[in-house]
Amino acid sequence: MAGDITTIARPYATAVFERAQETGEVASWSEALGLLAAIGGDPEFAGLIDNPNVPNEVARDIVLKVAGDALSAEQGNLVKLLAENDRLVLMPQLSGLFEEMRTAQDGSRVAQIRSAYALTKAEQQQLSAVLAAKLGGSVELTVELDKSLIGGVEIRVGDLVIDGTVRGKLAKLATELEF
After folding, report:
1. Contacts of 77 by beta carbon, 8 Å cutoff, 6+ apart
2. How far, in Å, CA of 4 to CA of 149, rounded?
3. CA distances from 68 to 35, 71, 75 (A)
4. Count of the separate structural domains present in the chain
5. Of the four listed, 35, 46, 93, 166, which is most buried by Cβ atoms within 10 Å?
6. Are residues 113 and 41 located together in one domain of the fold?
7. Which 3 state secondary structure label does DSSP give 160?
8. Is residue 64 domain-shared with residue 42, that is, in the same domain?
9. Per-residue pLDDT tens digits for 59-84
């Protein structure tokens, strides 16, 4: 499901990033999207968005009221557009994708690492160096511990996914054996 949401969010994030570059307001948009991600990531607000009895206009007005004067008119228009298209749920993903584009523009990339065990600093540095050599440019790691992976690591850099987890290998084996 997360991949589907990212796929839906990508055109919005791309358009926002291009507009931010045009106007020279990349930092302002980064802050605004961070605020919107915080609002959209709130469990109570997420429940409100998922409630079919709450009109999108009400959710939109709540976002705009909570954000207050922190959003420019253009950034407020983004919130209105997302509400009109029933896409307020994308706010956290928009921020993440925007930041990926921002770091890629600076010649670096963000790699999201999910690991079944805690990685040492040396392992993180080695992983960063290997990814930097493979992808060309510097790589910033964000590491998340996920015991459900059983063992190994999953690496995500933009659309590239490297699944070296035991869970992933078991899923692949199950598919091949038609379970």
Report:
1. none
2. 21
3. 11, 7, 11
4. 2
5. 93
6. no
7. strand
8. yes
9. 999 999 999 999 999 999 999 999 99
